[in-house]
Amino acid sequence: MSKVLVVTSGKGGVGKTTSTAALGAALAKAGKNVVVVDFDVGLRNLDIVMGAERRVVFDMINVIQGDAKLSQALIRDKRVETLSILPASQTRDKDALTSEGVEKIIAELREKFDWVICDSPAGIERGATLAMHHADVAVIVTNPEVSSVRDSDRIIGLLDSKTERAAKGERIEKHLLLTRYDPVRAARGDMLKTEDVLEILSIPLLGIIPESPEVLRASNLGTPVVLSNPDAAPSRAYADAARRLMGEQVPMTVPGEKTGFLTKLFGRRVA
Amino acid sequence: MSFFSFLSRKPTAAIARDRLQILLAHERGTLGGNSDLVAILQEEILAVIAKHVSVEREKVQIKLDRGDSFSTLEIGIEIPPGLAEKQASLKRAALRAS
Ligand SMILES: Nc1ncnc2c1ncn2[C@@H]1O[C@H](COP(=O)(O)OP(=O)(O)OP(=O)(O)O)[C@@H](O)[C@H]1O
Ligand SMILES: [Mg+2]
């Protein structure tokens, strides 16, 4: 059975696109058929994070307006065979994203894929509400920081009231993904504690993704971090989160970098 | 990760710069960034092909790779088995008759 998952946050820049690419790649590596869908009309960047920017021909709005078939707009990942991306439009007006159009596309994607992962734009406007509308599962990306937690709370409210599932009186499965987590600052007591964030938002924890320079390297390369460096701390954290999404029980840890003595000495020079 | 793997890791900033240069050149239109060009080419190429065989829109795959000095456009059209030969011979017959 296929699942529609929205990666959302309210607040901008917390790691939604990074997480969409990483979770999508991790699920695809596990053999699932996955499509990652960019809902950020006008400011698309999932294609860039996925390294597909040079291969975009048609986008979601071309499909909605009937200028292209869905199969023509989907771009197959070059590294993982079961991973595809549906780009957002860079140039067209946001209003071209109609709710009927989105509904049709999501229904068609459900038939082709096991996982349809929607990368939401920031904010609580139309783009964000359309991205979450058809979701069965929501991953709420949150940084351990006051404004991010507050925006996540707002988004949780929308998920429980403005989605298709909510309208049908059904529950939408919600998971918290804590990203850009800094173990050093956490140890120093300068960062909101995971327990506190969980208690405030009261939704289950999907994973804790540490802050890591590997994420920037991955974005430079245009390769989801779980593919560019599968052993890196954020990659292992994303892989665990993906396994939890598939229903596996995985003990919760904050993966640290496996750095040897030499790496510590010289690591800075090559970073 | 091996103990010495960091030695072989190349910095990624140059790759990021190259990707951006290519992307922006296309978006700013200096490399013929007309985003509708592909749609126009597709329509016209399909029209030419449709004169000879009937193709389903679903069976047309269009791939584009925007490059530094040139881009490649790849159009894959799936033609049903036997149809191509049959239609071609019909066409030849029609030509001979005219
Ligand atoms: N775990 C991490 N460690 C270090 N940097 C990170 C991490 N996660 C995300 N980033 C960086 O944070 C920035 C924002 O990430 P991203 O684009 O994924 O956020 P977003 O929520 O999609 O943003 P927007 O709201 O603008 O769509 C990027 O520069 C990304 O590389
Ligand atoms: Mg984003």
Automatic annotation (TrEMBL), chain A:
Q: Which GO terms describe its biological process?
A: division septum assembly; negative regulation of cell division
Q: Which GO terms describe its molecular function?
A: ATP binding; ATP hydrolysis activity
Q: Which Pfam families does UniProt cross-reference here?
A: CbiA
Q: Which residues form the CobQ/CobB/MinD/ParA nucleotide binding domain?
A: 5-225
Recorded hits in InterPro entries, A to Z, give: CobQ/CobB/MinD/ParA_Nub-bd_dom, MinD, MinD_FleN, P-loop_NTPase, ParA/MinD_ATPase
Asked if Nucleotide-binding is a keyword of the record, the answer is: yes
Q: Which UniProt keywords apply?
A: ATP-binding, Cell cycle, Cell division, Nucleotide-binding, Septation
Q: Is Phosphoprotein set as a keyword in this record?
A: no
Residues recorded as binding ATP, renumbered to this chain, are K11, G12, G13, V14, G15, K16, T17, T18
Q: Name one GO cellular component term.
A: cytoplasmic side of plasma membrane
As for family, the record states:
Belongs to the ParA family. MinD subfamily.
Tell me, what does this protein do in biology? ATPase required for the correct placement of the division site. Cell division inhibitors MinC and MinD act in concert to form an inhibitor capable of blocking formation of the polar Z ring septums. Rapidly oscillates between the poles of the cell to destabilize FtsZ filaments that have formed before they mature into polar Z rings.
Quaternary structure and interacting proteins, as annotated: Interacts with MinC and FtsZ.
What name does the UniProt record give this protein? Septum site-determining protein MinD
Q: Which organism is it from?
A: Acidisoma cellulosilyticum
Automatic annotation (TrEMBL), chain B:
Instruction: Tell me a GO biological process for this protein.
Output: regulation of division septum assembly
What task does this protein carry out? Prevents the cell division inhibition by proteins MinC and MinD at internal division sites while permitting inhibition at polar sites. This ensures cell division at the proper site by restricting the formation of a division septum at the midpoint of the long axis of the cell.
Name under which the protein is recorded? Cell division topological specificity factor
Record-linked SUPFAM superfamilies: Cell division protein MinE topological specificity domain
Domain of life, per UniProt, equals Bacteria
Q: Which NCBIfam families match?
A: minE, PRK00296.1
Q: Which HAMAP family does the annotation name?
A: MinE
Would I find Magnesium among this entry's keywords? Answer: no
Kindly state which keywords UniProt assigns to this record, in alphabetical order.
Cell cycle, Cell division
Transmembrane regions listed in the UniProt entry: none
What's this protein's family per the entry? Answer: Belongs to the MinE family.
Q: Name one Pfam family in it.
A: MinE
Q: InterPro entries this protein is in?
A: MinE, MinE_sf
